[in-house]
Amino acid sequence: MNINLPLALTIARVAAIPIVFGLFLTDLPQRGHWATVVFALAGITDWLDGWLARRWGQTSKFGAFLDPVADKLLVAVSLIVLLHERPGGELMFLCAVIIGREITVSALREWMAELGSRTSVAVNWIGKWKTGFQMTAIGMLLWGTPFFGIPIYTIGLGLLWVAAALTIWSMLVYLRAAWPMMKDAS
């Protein structure tokens, strides 16, 4: 396996996951701020690795597999950390919607790939907007404290509601695209 820069960035995103998690196991002052920095850097690699791979012609099957896995793990672990830090019904609901959608769509893509129809559930613009809102919201929630009087956590929670709505919308788009094959398989 040839590890080029785009793949190394994806691997670095996977390596960031235990760091974000581990920061919340410490008593470091401003651990949420440090976790946000690591999370933000990992989020930037999500965009950068794909852009570089396409631009430089360095795409690979392993990179195409690992990239969405890294994203989903980073999001899921971060949401679990947030829920542990501030348990509550609203955040629990949003975490369940987002993580549930990721599992559903991943399983749907796997099944569609087995049928040879993976392109009918390819990432679309709704999924890209969902990811943008989700990553911004999670970063703000990890930060957790006001920033120059701006209620970062509250804004992040509002953005997570937008991300959850986009999450449901994108899942419905994927399910609708797969419905003809699902109907024929039953």
Distance, first to last CA: 39 Å
Q: And the CATH topology?
A: Four Helix Bundle (Hemerythrin (Met), subunit A)
What is the CATH architecture term?
A: Up-down Bundle
- Percent helix range: over 70%
The share of residues in extended strands comes to under 5%
Rounded to an integer in angstroms, the radius of gyration calculated over CA atoms is 17 Å
State the oligomer.
Answer: single chain
Q: Which residues form runs of ≥5 with pLDDT under 50?
A: none
Number of helices: 6
Indicate the CATH class: Mainly Alpha
Largest sheet: none
Q: What's the structural domain tally? A: 1
How many strand elements? Answer: 0
The SSE string, one letter per element, is: HHHHHH
Mean pLDDT: 90
CATH superfamily: CDP-alcohol phosphotransferase transmembrane (TM) domain
SSE class: mainly alpha
Transmembrane segments: 7-26, 32-52, 150-175
Main location: membrane
Catalytic activity: a CDP-1,2-diacyl-sn-glycerol + sn-glycerol 3-phosphate = a 1,2-diacyl-sn-glycero-3-phospho-(1'-sn-glycero-3'-phosphate) + CMP + H(+)
Membrane topology: Multi-pass membrane protein
Describe this structure in words.
The protein is an all-alpha fold. It has one domain: CDP-alcohol phosphotransferase transmembrane (TM) domain (Four Helix Bundle (Hemerythrin (Met), subunit A)). It is built from 6 helices and no strands. It has helices at 5-23, 31-56, 61-85, 89-114, 125-143, 152-185. It is globular and about 55 Å long. The mean pLDDT is 90.
